[in-house]
């Protein structure tokens, strides 16, 4: 399936659509407040990417490039992508939207870290992600999963 | 209500009881593997605290002291406690077990950070926790909540 992944702009329409997603939290609330208080402009860049079905947002994820100096997961240290809030709204699940978003992230050719909040291990395994060796000091309550681009050393701490 | 909060030891009984809790993840699996492989000893210390009803574990949390040098939440930088996996099993909810665990953490007189995974804002507000100003680079997909001991500067980044 060939879906068009778009970088989402911060505006009232996008933020209204975000309310359909389960993982609605401080990040979205903060964007809404910043927009209302004119701290950010309408149509500002956001760390969200999404796929529309018609004019309806049906899948989204957040993607942020973490600077190598904050890297605690990959060796040698290198910028990596943190991926979170990957979610497809119920009627559109199992149609390849989630896969399309993850493939989009992989095409940036940087290692990826994610910390899925829901039970989705099978999905992430299929996408080539693997668990880290748990380290309480680093991982605390997280269940980090990592993906490595081809040719990247698969050694993680 | 006066409940006895105990530091939990890593052993097969504890790990079996952990399976009753929803937030069972890499941390628990890793403890189990380490125990099976004799990497850690039976009855090793864990970062978990819990409350028993009879010989049944009915509430638990994880608590870890984060070194001031990794502090990104409190100013001035100071050691703080990360609290996660606070959970009470269904039949024992709304009886003060969760509150007892959080009060136990507060009595250590360090600032506390938590990132609740479930919708529980009312509970945390009642416990005196407040939201941070969201910062994408620091918080990514988290919804951090902070608590400050008396006399501690309430300034956070």
UniProtKB/TrEMBL annotation, chains A, B:
InterPro entries: Acyl_CoA_acyltransferase, GNAT_dom, YlbP. Residues 8-150 form the N-acetyltransferase domain. Keywords: Acyltransferase, Transferase. Pfam families: Acetyltransf_1. Gene3D superfamilies: 3.40.630.30. The keyword Acyltransferase applies. It is an enzyme of class 2 (transferase). Its EC number is 2.3.1.-. CDD domains: NAT_SF (cd04301). This is Uncharacterized N-acetyltransferase ACFYKX_24050. It comes from Cytobacillus spartinae.
């Amino acid at each position: 399936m060939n879906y068009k992944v778009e970088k989402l702009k911060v505006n009232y329409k996008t933020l209204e659509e975000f309310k359909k997603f389960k993982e609605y939290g401080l990040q979205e609330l903060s964007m809404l407040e910043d927009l209302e208080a004119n701290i950010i402009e309408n149509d500002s860049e956001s760390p969200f990417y999404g796929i529309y079905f018609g004019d309806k947002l049906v899948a989204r994820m957040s993607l942020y490039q973490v600077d190598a100096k904050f890297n605690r997961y990959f060796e040698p240290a290198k910028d990596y992508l943190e991926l979170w809030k990957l979610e497809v709204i119920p009627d559109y699940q199992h149609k390849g939207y989630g896969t399309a978003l993850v493939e989009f992230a992989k095409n940036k050719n940087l290692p990826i870290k994610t910390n899925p909040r829901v039970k989705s291990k099978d999905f992430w395994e299929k996408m080539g992600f693997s668990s880290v060796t748990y380290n309480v000091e680093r991982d605390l309550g997280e269940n980090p999963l990592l993906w490595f681009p081809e040719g990247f050393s698969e050694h993680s701490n």
